Amino acid sequence: MPMNSTDSQIKEDMLLPEIEDKPPMANRFRGYLPVVIDVETAGFNPKKNALLEIAAVLLDMDEEGIITPGETIACHILPFKGSELDQAALDFTGIDPYHPFRMAVEEKHALPKIFKPIREAIKINGCTRAILVGHNPSFDLSFLNAAAKRSGIKRNPFHAFSTFDTATLGGLAYGQTVLARAVKAAGFDWDSERAHSAIYDTQRTADLFCNIVNRWSTLTRDAENSE
């Protein structure tokens, strides 16, 4: 019986080695490169509702293992043919899907623009695949995977199902699961007027994720040095 994509991903995960003499990122997350993603959509169903915006923040790591936000990549996307646009979702985000100033492109053109620099970052960092970082990321990953399938993209750089969830991490580190509250608890500003833009939400999520990872790394090093 042929393996499905989930079985193939699990097999790949089991074979990942720790690699010496590679960039620090290669071994920090078992060969996976964390990439922060946020999407804005016209509803909750990835198969029926349109993907309208996607933003990605690449992450950098220095020789000391400190992780910082890097390049931001973003695209406005036209609703795919036959997609449903939920008015409540549009009212919430404030997006007019067909406004000419959006300069939106079709999914099949948007995703390669997002995926190409991610693949390049995977290679530069000695990693094997990207892993999606997001706030309640199963939502973002479901829309990303559905759009990739519609666009006929066979080389999706992201892990098929694993993610890092900043809602969970924010709850652990700061007792806050709402993005705005977790970001402020971590010491960053939050502009509610800019929220629900894929770029803004992704950049603040990246700040939060890096803060928590670095905080944990510092605690771990301090504990090791005290022994």
Polypeptide structure, described:
A 5-stranded mixed sheet has the order 3-2-1-4-5, sandwiched between helices. The chain is 44% helix and 20% strand. 36% of the residues are buried. It is an alpha/beta fold. The chain has one domain: Ribonuclease H-like superfamily/Ribonuclease H (Nucleotidyltransferase, domain 5, 2-Layer Sandwich). The protein is globular.
Name the descriptors.
single chain, 5 strands, globular, Nucleotidyltransferase, domain 5, five-stranded mixed sheet, alpha/beta
Write the layout of secondary structure elements.
Layout: H1 5-15, H2 24-28, E1 32-41, E2 51-61, E3 67-76, H3 87-93, H4 107-124, E4 129-134, H5 137-150, E5 158-165, H6 166-174, H7 179-185, H8 198-226
Parallel strand pairs: 1-4, 4-5
Antiparallel strand pairs: 1-2, 2-3
Helix pairs in contact: 6-7, 6-8
The CATH topology turns out to be Nucleotidyltransferase, domain 5
Could you state the CATH homologous superfamily?
A: Ribonuclease H-like superfamily/Ribonuclease H
Fraction of helical residues: 40-55%
CATH architecture annotation: 2-Layer Sandwich
From the alpha carbons, calculate the radius of gyration and give it in angstroms: 18 Å
Along the chain, the helix and strand elements come as HHEEEHHEHEHHH
Structural class: alpha/beta
Q: List low-pLDDT spans.
A: none
**How much of the residues is beta strand, in percent?**
15-25%
What is the terminal separation in angstroms? Answer: 52 Å
Helical region count?
Answer: 8
Number of strands: 5
Chain-averaged pLDDT: 92
What's the overall geometry? globular
The biggest sheet, with number of strands, parallel, antiparallel or mixed sense and barrel status, is: 5 strands, mixed
